[in-house]
Amino acid sequence: MKSQNALVFLFQGACSDVITSYNIHMKITIRRVGNSLGVILPKKMLDAWGLGEGDALDLTERGIRPPAAAGFSQQALDELKRTLALAVVRRFTPQEIRAQSLANLHRWKTRGAWVPAYDEWQEIIVRGEDGALFAAMLGRDEHANELRQSPPYVGLLPREEVMALNEEAAA
After folding, report:
1. Cβ distance 23 to 44 under 8 Å?
2. I want to staple 72 with a disulfide (CB 3.0 to 4.6 A). Which of 76, 88, 117, 120 is the partner?
3. What 3-state class would DSSP assign to 101?
4. Which residues pair with 46 in a beta bridge?
């Protein structure tokens, strides 16, 4: 009788919770396979991913997943940066965003990691106008997209949330 499971994925280390789809979470058992450890993935999941024997999977800190598409288009990358900025705006006050941004800008300037966009960010932040801050963070125009390529408000969102938004965008 044929098994309904396929593909043993070998890796050194342990990972007990494995994300098997972007919206489905299941537990699978880690088993000894030779001198390594491995997991057996359900064939139904492999079929849903369009994968079979010999295909590669990505192992990340968040789990095992099918390989990401060939990269983000510029439009998708711009939208991801805007989504990250929106998550910051939803969670933090303008004062908190300014404080983190100024701290980052100061640190980057003293370390010599300054890019021209930071001059404009600093001007927007110091001016203290919420509208200008939100326009730069959330605007859909080309100038806002360019500014979001070097955002000074990094570090406000928890790493897990940033990773989850990146994975959603890659789906």
Report:
1. no
2. 76
3. helix
4. none
Distance CA 26, CA 68 (A): 20
Strands (E), the chain: 5-11, 17-19, 25-27, 30-33, 36-42, 58-60, 63-65
pLDDT, tens digit, 9 for 90 and up, residues 56-69: 887 766 677 776 65
Exposed (0-12), middle (13-18) or buried (19+): which is 53, by Cβ within 10 Å? exposed
Look up residue 16 and give its DSSP letter.
S
Query: Mapping DSSP to helix (H, G, I), strand (E, B) and coil, where does residue 57 land?
Result: coil
How long is the chain?
Answer: 171
**What is the residue extent of each domain of the chain?**
5-65, 74-170
Tokens standing for residue 83: 């989504």
Instruction: Report if pTM > 0.85.
Output: no
